[in-house]
Amino acid sequence: MRAYTAMMGAHMRCQLQYRAAAWAGMVTQLFFGMVKLMIFGAFYQSTKVEQPFSYEQMVNYIWLGQVLLMILPFRVDQELADLIRMGNLAYELTRPVKIFWFWYVRALSLRIVPVLLRALPMILLVGLVFPLLKLNQWALAPPVSWMAAIVFLSSLVLAFLLSAALQVLMSVTILWSMSSQGMDLLMPSIVWIFSGIIIPLPFYPPWMQKLFHWMPFRGLIDIPLRIYMGHIPVNAALGSLAVQLTWILVLLGVSSVLLKRGLKRVVIQGG
Amino acid sequence: MQNLRLYFRLAGISMQRQLEYRFSFFMQILAQFIITISEFIGLAALFQGFGNIHGWTLWQVAFFYSMIALGFSISSLFTRGLDITPQLIKSGELDRYFLRPRPVLLQLLGFEFTLRRMGRLIQGIIVFILAVVNLQMHLDALKLLLILWSIMGSVFLFTGLMLGQATLSFWTIEGLEIMNSFTYGGLETGRYPLTVYKGWFRKFFTFVIPLGCVNYYSILHILEIEDPLGSSKLFQGLAPLGGVLFFFLGLFIWRMGLKHYKSTGS
Fold this sequence. Notes:
The structure holds two protein chains of two kinds. Chain A is mainly alpha-helical. Chain A has one domain (2-264). Chain A contains eleven helices and no strands. Chain A has helices at residues 2-15, 19-45, 55-67, 78-86, 89-94, 99-132, 146-177, 183-194, 206-213, 222-228, 234-264. In chain A, helix 2 packs across helix 6. Chains A and B meet through helix 2 and helix 8 of A and helix 2 and helix 10 of B.
């Protein structure tokens, strides 16, 4: 256990070096948030029909989506991919740790640190500074209740665990494909749509929502955000947390089996 | 002239290389197509719920959407080399490009003709056709010319932005994500008519980055809609020139950057 936490600490410190990237990312995420706010603002002004969310809820969904953007496993872990392709995997195999959990804590830190780096300044800005600037209609509101806040945080923790599980699954598939084809190419783009980051999932046609319902990706963004703004009420939220947890276990199970099989037939390349 | 021939040769080799892995290649195109078409389904879903956006209908917006998608995707076919310039700098690989007796930019553009990005192009063409059919547009010669002219304008604009991004990477590699605001952000912004946005934002995307010129104004002319912002027909027709000028500005900045470039020395 100590080895894994130590590894995680080291990876996290490594990630902390990318502070300039975090600032640049924050500006970009603020920009995208504002574009979305203007577009949805115009949509809401154009209709009297009841929508799945109120405009205020939509504002929260958009900002939280931008704040948590880096939780999405939208990129293959390039270092791991190179390691597998170049044959340095051999070194990984010699370490006295379970390679699966070794990769999992690595994936976790890869997801957690960029979010933490960006989240605080962004929340301060859109949650506190925006109201001071009289930009109330663009400001992030607090969670609907204390209970919702607690459930939201638990759901967020699960979202990180889920995202890291997807990340590991992507890495493991490289053992088979050896290149950027297959799942490691498809998945990053899929999470864009199916997590709800582009358009909140409740706004899609019913047949697509059924499809989303049976996929793990809504556990990354859509579930935690809707708990935060009360769109999933606290008493119904336990079911949503169970969905997240189930997917974490399923994905971890699948990737650990795939890894075991993959390592059996692995050929170390390079010299 | 010789340079142009060299470019086509490089692009040809690059295409051959990508076609070697035929299955992977088709999968990649299919993947990008599915993703981008789902984006459009999302847009259509929003219109089902909201009906219109400031009076614009789904198919009018779809026309804006497809026009900007076409410009963006065509530009993205040949700007992969500019996309990865930061990595080339980091690894010191870019230095080799300086040693060869051909322009650095030519070599970068020839780095790859990215066929898999055809997925977005195909999506753009499909949405374009759907919009034209549903709006019952009569495409005469003048309109076709205007359509081509605006697409050309946005290809120039996005290529200019990519040049800016590559130039910026001479100074900073980490801060580059900011440029996504203008490239992908431009793509996102251009999907809706400018009237949807606030005044300061419209001005930014007209006078600083002339996205409105290659998209909003010329499309109003094509759709024969009076501009709620009050621009004249003549201005609308000439507007895509803004994209071309922006490209040359980008080229100028790129040349300045090249002079400034110091190798990472690894």
